[in-house]
């Protein structure tokens, strides 16, 4: 057992306090319609397909994956810009996944979103003062004459000149516009911020400044963050916990050190190999970049079994037949792979087969019964699998 398996005191493994956000088995299937006059539903884009995670107050989870894997949709479901097909979004213990517009209005104060494109998300015809101040008026939070001082205070918090409240978005640089977007998101003092690629559109030199600003804000106001990014470099310094998504599913989730130094999923390993400043030890001492072959398959007709198998160098028969469960393999680390293992140490036999009651080919094993698997919901269990010994370790034994 490595030191990183030990439970940090401030992050309980089990839910002994209600998480700010608890996402359970979340699904979003967009209908695909036929062309012609009578537009029938001919299939579904499985954009998000059974996603589980939690965000605690003041903490941040990084959600990472290639374009089209369902990150933005997940963010839009959490903020309820979209209504999920199935599953629940528990915010402070209450399921908000299906509530209507009236109940959503007060919730808009608590959950805010920062978008990738700071220009597209700001109305060019409104002054910065109006953009930042309007939510205060809509939600009737402050008397009219207190709105301007509050707008100026927010501009100062995000590092802009408070006297520039009557300027228009086009008068600011890209980085400054993103600061305006952040000020607008802070206006209502949210408890949760969903930041969807907040720095991807910015110059590299500006990205660090905006990330530092978000980090300062998070600490100062104790805001929970769901930070969406397409690569592992951006979330590295911001998020103590990282989830890696592939084709609508989380394939690996865990504490930052577990993901960067002990990644067990071949997809995470491939993403990590593309991060320039990850130490060689973190990717098993290998220098070369792991090239992913082939394209991301269509989410309308995803591969059977493991969705990553069509691009995975370790895939075997079982991977096409049986979907690997997101199995807990450390105090705060889960992975969904039949051949889970650190780079260079992937097992020859599927580690999941005995747990799932199947043989090495993925066919039902005579007389075997599938095990009840700990930690397959949104929280971490106090017991997990310590491969390759397949021994369940309890937190109090560590
Ligand atoms: N409104 C919609 N109707 C139909 N399909 C959609 C809709 N929104 C998203 N999709 C599809 O769902 C899948 C996931 O999209 P999503 O934008 O969530 O991925 P992403 O990982 O955020 O990608 P990107 O980084 O490019 O935004 C994609 O195949 C996308 O085409």
From TrEMBL:
GO terms for molecular function: ATP binding; ATP hydrolysis activity. InterPro entries: AAA+_ATPase, ABC_transp_ATP-bind, ABC_transporter-like_ATP-bd, ABC_transporter-like_CS, Oligopep_ABC_C, P-loop_NTPase. This is Dipeptide ABC transporter ATP-binding protein. The keyword Transport applies. Residues 357-382 are annotated as: Disordered. It holds the Pfam family oligo_HPY. Keywords: ATP-binding, Nucleotide-binding, Transport. Residues 32-272 form the ABC transporter domain. It comes from Nocardioides seonyuensis. One of its GO terms (biological process) is peptide transport. The keyword Nucleotide-binding applies. Belongs to the ABC transporter superfamily. SMART domains: AAA.
């Amino acid at each position: 057992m490595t030191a990183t398996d030990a439970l940090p005191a401030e992050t309980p493994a089990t839910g002994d306090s209600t998480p700010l956000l608890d996402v359970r088995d979340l699904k979003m299937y967009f209908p695909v319609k036929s062309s012609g006059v009578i537009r029938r539903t001919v299939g579904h884009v499985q954009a998000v397909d059974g996603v589980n995670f939690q965000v605690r107050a003041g903490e941040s989870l990084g959600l990472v994956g290639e374009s089209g894997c369902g990150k933005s949709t997940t963010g839009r479901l959490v903020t309820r810009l979209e209504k999920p097909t199935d599953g629940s979004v528990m915010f402070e213990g209450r399921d908000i996944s299906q509530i209507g517009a009236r109940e959503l209005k007060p919730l808009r104060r608590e959950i805010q979103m920062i978008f990738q494109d700071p220009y597209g998300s700001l109305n060019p015809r409104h002054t910065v003062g109006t953009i930042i101040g309007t939510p205060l008026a809509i939600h009737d939070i402050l008397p009219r004459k207190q709105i301007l001082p509050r707008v100026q205070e927010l501009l100062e918090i995000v590092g802009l000149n408070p006297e520039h409240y009557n300027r228009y978005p086009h008068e600011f640089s890209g980085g400054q516009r993103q600061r305006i977007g952040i000020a607008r998101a802070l206006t209502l003092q949210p408890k949760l911020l969903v930041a969807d690629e907040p720095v991807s559109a910015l110059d590299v030199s500006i990205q660090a400044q905006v990330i530092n600003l978000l980090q300062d804000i998070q600490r100062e106001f104790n805001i929970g963050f769901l930070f969406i990014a397409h690569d592992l470099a951006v979330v590295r310094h911001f998020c103590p916990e990282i989830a890696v998504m592939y084709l609508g599913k989380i394939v690996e989730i865990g504490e930052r050190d577990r993901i960067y130094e002990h990644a067990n999923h071949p997809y995470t390993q491939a993403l990590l190999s593309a991060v320039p400043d990850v130490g060689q030890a973190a990717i098993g001492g290998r220098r070369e970049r792991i090239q992913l072959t082939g394209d991301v398959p269509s989410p309308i007709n995803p591969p059977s079994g493991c969705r990553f198998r069509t691009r995975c160098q370790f895939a075997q028969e079982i991977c096409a037949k049986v979907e690997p469960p997101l199995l807990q393999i450390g105090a705060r680390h889960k992975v969904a792979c039949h051949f889970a293992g650190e780079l260079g140490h992937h097992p020859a036999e599927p580690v999941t087969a005995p747990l799932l009651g199947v043989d090495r080919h993925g066919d039902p094993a005579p007389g075997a019964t599938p095990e009840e698997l700990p930690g397959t919901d949104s929280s971490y269990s106090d017991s997990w699998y310590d491969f390759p010994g397949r021994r369940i370790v309890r937190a109090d034994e560590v």
